[in-house]
User: Which sequence fits this backbone?
């Protein structure tokens, strides 16, 4: 099939980002040509301020080199702007007279700086702040002249002024209103900012209206409406941007303040897409990078002919990129009628925080001096989170929520040296992450994960990595929403998938992928195990397990070790064993030359270093001696740890070992979203450490305390007390019900601790404690699914099931 | 070519799975995709030598079971931002049997 022709007019961040997204979705669909007015390849425009300030070079901010275009088969034409679009003949014509046909056209012409049409505005030395040429002109002026005037005390104007000051110029900022950055800051924050900039030597003329720019040929000064004058060898106009829609208008496309586009980023001509700063969507024009990336994803989706994405507008936030000044704002930061405001002010520390609250939801935020929680407030704002539960502490930040370890990230991360290790699993330092973000132009957590591996394994450092991204990227950082696709194969979240499996009665992986529009035919190593689990948990009697969608540990029923050998853990119910059991294990260990044995943290015996091909025979011997698999390798019920209990211990109150055995007999073999551990302690001395288990029982004189959601792993979490019960039967019922609720509701690879924190203990209590009928129903469903789960996989493999898995094919190479 | 070795029946490799061929010098993993293409790679991840045969196969790539590197089955190259490559061996299917060419010179054929 001949490729369709796609032309991109505008070689900026919006357009090229769309191409990147498109190449991910449909790399072969189009023959792509890009026209850029500037002579450069695509660069990171939001990083111009650091270039001007001398903190970065132009090369540092190039996002896609010419090699990138070549590698992706994209023709790039720079320095030759498109001057005409012929919509009838479907072609574009450039300034130099080149013409090119298109099947689809993408317009990303961005915006132009607004130049106030005062007398003298066309003099030499009067510029905007928009592109590399402007930065070059400013750097050049800084070398040869002394006085600079920046007209406009908004975000861009202040960044320009800061840069010029750093380049050694004497800078005056002229602002029409009485407070700076009035579109982002309320008055108190604005005053703090002004004071801080004045301290650095920046001068301000507030409420000053420019009347004329003076000088012959080159500008020499500025005269104001009140007749006063200041000298100026360089005038930077930073009073706003105007969507650059001249080309689109000339082509007869409907334009208002910008090129009007719908939710699919299409203009009134369906062959023509437009996005970025040149467009108007639902009445809004955006001048920030985060919404433009959202638009790029949607446009790419439609250009790839998938046709499912919609852009519904963005809420934006801003950060000022002036080194040493921390400032963040988002949403409606000036309170309206009926709004409530929370303010924290500490003038001596230069800290000011204000949140505007409406109906217990964050509507806006202004942070000055301490912006660490900016991204958190922004997430609360975008997702409309009800904050009543932590309203009293919200101003102190996320880390004050009593989150057991995840929260306290941003404060620490800013102060860390580059050599500090962020990701312990993959040995990634802060410097590596910052380098990857700046040099490779990364914008999302996913990108950082892909390029550095940071937070890609256990994920416990995700918060740290996000903080580094946020502090490195400033406004370009688009925090991943908490509701996100399971993996690259789908836009649907885990919850969407679980719901669809239940509601639409989807009973196979192809059915799920079909119903939910998976992008890949087989899925990937991340979504397949999850789907396999969800189907298994929902349809225990009907779903046929898919071995090829299981991680090798579960497929081979042993733990793969770093040298490719396996370890074997026989189940010992409640940790109890006999002399015969130990003899059998010892014999097996001798027979298969097990190099190392150890007792695990869960009171079982681990046999290390077993060759995969020896596994079935070894399991046969263990089965003959009465053992079943300990599932020590599985996202499954692992062990029930016990203490001595009242039979022997002078403090024991109940038969904890016996109860442990019963619980393990009830639960063994059960597949779970993640590994799952139980413990029973015979008294509150808690020798079995029941309060850091997924489900723990602490025996007391009057009965049993039931604990849930503990974790002794990456992030230690002490259990929450669920309730007290009086009989062993109740323990069994509550345990089964809790396990089943977790099995049905948690995301794959989510342990009970984060699950309980996510859904809240109250939710668990409602379902398991308060609603007795529901508890019994959960327990029944658990017991039902156990009929199919309690089959020893070792015995089955020893009898030859899946034999191919364990046999190598030996050949002699000629 | 005289170098083709018959190694296994196609049916004996599970779809989206693999079999390990033990040769004199190394283990070779022979993979079968969902649409019955067959690929062969040296059974060692370029990262830390993980047994690729034990990974999860999806599309025409496999994810190493040790540290999740994704390896392209056709080229043996690591995908995405990872860099590295493992040996590739030519395969063909005739009459339901999988043949493998172990000579390096034919690997690219």
Assistant:
């Amino acid at each position: 099939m001949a490729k369709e022709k796609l032309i991109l007019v505008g070689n900026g961040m919006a357009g090229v980002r769309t191409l990147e997204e498109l190449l991910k979705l449909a790399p072969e669909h189009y023959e792509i040509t890009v026209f850029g007015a500037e002579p450069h390849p695509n660069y990171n425009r939001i990083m111009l301020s650091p270039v001007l300030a001398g903190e970065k070079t132009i090369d540092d901010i190039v996002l896609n080199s010419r090699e990138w275009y070549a590698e992706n088969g994209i023709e790039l034409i720079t320095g030759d702007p498109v001057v005409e679009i012929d919509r009838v003949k479907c072609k574009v014509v450039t300034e130099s007279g080149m013409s090119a046909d298109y099947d689809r056209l993408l317009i990303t012409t961005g915006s132009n700086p607004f130049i106030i049409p005062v007398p003298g505005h066309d003099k030499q030395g009067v510029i905007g702040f928009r592109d590399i040429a402007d930065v070059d002109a400013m750097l050049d002026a800084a070398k040869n002249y002394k006085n600079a005037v920046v007209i406009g005390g908004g975000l861009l104007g202040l960044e320009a002024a800061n840069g010029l000051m750093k380049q050694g110029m004497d800078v005056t900022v002229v602002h029409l209103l009485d407070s700076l950055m009035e579109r982002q800051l309320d008055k108190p924050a604005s005053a703090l900012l002004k004071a801080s900039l004045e301290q650095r030597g920046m001068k301000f003329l507030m409420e000053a209206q420019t009347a004329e720019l003076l000088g012959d040929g080159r500008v020499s000064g500025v005269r104001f409406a009140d007749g006063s004058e200041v000298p100026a060898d360089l005038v930077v106009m930073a009073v706003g941007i105007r969507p650059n829609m001249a080309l689109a208008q000339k082509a007869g496309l409907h334009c208002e303040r910008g090129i009007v586009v719908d939710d699919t980023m299409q203009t009134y001509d369906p062959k023509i897409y437009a996005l970025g700063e040149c467009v108007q969507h639902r009445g809004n024009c955006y001048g920030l990078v985060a919404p433009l990336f959202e638009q790029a994803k949607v446009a790419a989706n439609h250009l790839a002919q998938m046709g499912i994405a919609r852009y519904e507008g963005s809420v934006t936030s801003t950060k000022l990129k002036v080194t040493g000044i921390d400032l963040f704002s988002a949403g409606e930061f000036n309170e309206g009628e009926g709004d409530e405001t929370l303010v924290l002010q500490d003038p001596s520390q230069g800290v000011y925080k204000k949140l505007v609250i409406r109906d217990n939801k964050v509507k806006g935020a202004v942070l000055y001096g301490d912006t660490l929680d900016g991204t958190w407030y922004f997430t609360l704002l975008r997702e409309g989170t009800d904050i009543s539960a932590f309203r009293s502490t919200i101003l102190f930040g996320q880390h004050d929520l009593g989150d057991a370890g995840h929260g306290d990230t941003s404060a620490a991360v800013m102060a860390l040296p580059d050599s500090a290790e962020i990701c312990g699993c993959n040995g990634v330092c802060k410097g590596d992450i910052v380098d990857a973000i700046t040099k490779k132009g990364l914008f999302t957590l996913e990108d950082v994960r892909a390029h550095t591996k940071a937070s890609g394994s256990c994920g416990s450092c995700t918060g740290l990595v996000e903080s580094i991204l946020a502090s490195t990227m400033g406004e370009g950082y688009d925090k991943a929403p908490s509701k996100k696709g399971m993996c690259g194969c789908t836009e649907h979240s885990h919850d969407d998938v679980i719901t669809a499996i239940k509601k639409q009665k989807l009973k196979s992986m192809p059915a799920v992928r079909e119903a939910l529009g998976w992008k890949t035919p087989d899925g990937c190593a991340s979504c397949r195990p999850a789907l396999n689990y969800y189907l298994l948990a929902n349809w225990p009697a009907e779903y046929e397990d898919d071995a090829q969608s299981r991680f090798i540990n579960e497929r081979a029923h042993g733990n793969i070790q770093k040298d490719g050998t396996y370890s074997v853990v026989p189940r010992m119910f409640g940790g109890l064993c006999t002399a015969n059991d130990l003899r059998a294990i010892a014999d097996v260990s001798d027979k298969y030359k097990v190099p190392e044995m150890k007792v695990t943290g869960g009171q079982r015996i681990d046999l290390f270093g077993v060759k995969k091909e020896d596994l079935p025979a070894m399991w046969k011997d263990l089965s003959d001696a009465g053992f079943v698999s300990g599932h020590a390798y599985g996202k499954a019920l692992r062990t029930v740890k016990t203490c001595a209990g009242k039979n022997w211990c002078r403090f024991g109150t109940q038969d904890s070992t016996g109860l442990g055995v019963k619980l393990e007999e009830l639960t063994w073999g059960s597949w779970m979203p993640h590994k799952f551990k139980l413990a029973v302690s015979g008294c509150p001395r808690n020798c079995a450490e029941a309060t850091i288990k997924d489900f723990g029982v602490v025996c007391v004189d009057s009965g049993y305390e039931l604990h849930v959601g503990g974790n002794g792993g990456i992030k230690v979490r002490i259990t929450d007390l669920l309730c007290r019960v009086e009989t062993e039967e109740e323990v069994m019922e509550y345990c089964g019900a809790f396990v089943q609720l977790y099995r049905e509701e948690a995301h794959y690879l989510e342990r009970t601790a984060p699950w309980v924190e996510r859904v809240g203990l109250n939710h668990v209590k409602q379902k398991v404690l308060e609603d007795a009928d529901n508890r019994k129903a959960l327990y029944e469903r658990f017991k039902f699914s156990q009929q199919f789960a309690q089959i020893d996989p070792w015995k089955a493999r020893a009898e030859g099931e899946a034999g191919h898995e364990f046999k190598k094919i030996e050949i002699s190479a000629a | 070519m005289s170098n083709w070795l018959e190694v296994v029946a196609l049916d004996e490799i599970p779809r989206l799975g693999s079999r390990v061929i033990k040769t004199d010098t190394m283990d070779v993993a022979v993979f079968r995709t969902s649409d019955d293409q067959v690929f062969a790679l040296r059974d060692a991840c370029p990262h830390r030598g993980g047994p690729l045969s034990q990974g999860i196969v999806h599309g025409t790539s496999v994810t190493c079971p040790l540290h999740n590197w994704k390896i392209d089955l056709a080229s043996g190259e690591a995908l995405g931002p990872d860099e590295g490559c493992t040996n590739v061996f030519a395969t063909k299917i005739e009459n339901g049997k999988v043949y493998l060419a172990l000579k390096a010179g034919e690997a690219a054929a």
